[in-house]
Task: structure prediction
Amino acid sequence: MSQEILAVYPGSFDPLTNGHLDIITRSSKLFCKIIVAVTTNYNKKHTFSLDERLRLLRESTKDLNNIEILSFSGLLAKYLEQIKSFVVIRGLRALSDFEYEFQMALMNRNLNKKIETIFLIPDQSYTFLSSTMVKEIAMLGGDVSCFVPKCVEEELKNKYQKK
Ligand code: ADP
Result:
């Protein structure tokens, strides 16, 4: 049954890290198709443009054939309805993620009771990893090669080290 399900992994991916990739890879084995839905929330200031975030995701997932990278704006619940999906994937790193994720999952279910949120836990080595931390390390000239795919590492260098 789960093999036929289209699932959506929403997020800002600003930028993509190996933690996000771990969740994408795990979900690609569980569901028939995954849409990685990149948020274009104009209230949130992003370091990477939407085009950059989409390109880096596409480049990093090109070997996974059931992954599609798209963008969306507005309410996730409405987007899910549009594409006829009712499964949301989110990653849980630590207890600190829990409260926000729990609230969001229940809110989405309130908006549409069919929506189920599936939480996946990444490899232990990624539980401390966040896009924000990666950007801070890169900004200070640190080595981020074990935290992000090669193409992201290069973009971070372009952004922070050639100024
Ligand atoms: P958002 O702004 O929607 O939180 P993020 O790109 O920060 O967007 O995160 C998208 C999803 O990926 C969230 O569910 C987040 O908990 C998860 N995530 C982020 N970093 C990691 C990581 N290192 N390991 C596992 N999941 C992660």
Q: What stands out?
A: The pocket of adenosine-5'-diphosphate is lined by residues 11-13, 17, 19-20, 23, 90-91, 93, 97, 122, 126, 129-131 (CB under 6 Å).
